[in-house]
Amino acid sequence: MRPRRLVLVVGTGTDVGKTWVSARLLTTLRAAGVTVAARKPAQSFEPGDDPAGLDSAVLGAATGEPSASVCRPSRWYDVAMAPPMAADVLGRGSFTVAELVEELAWPPVQVDVGLVESAGGVRSPQAHDGDAVDLLRTLEPDLVLLVADAGLGTINAVRLSTGVLAGSGLDGAAEVVVVLNRFDGDNDLHRRNRRWLAEQDGMCVVALPGEEQQLAALVHRH
Question: Out of 24, 39, 40, 72, which one is annotated catalytic?
Answer without folding.
Answer: 40
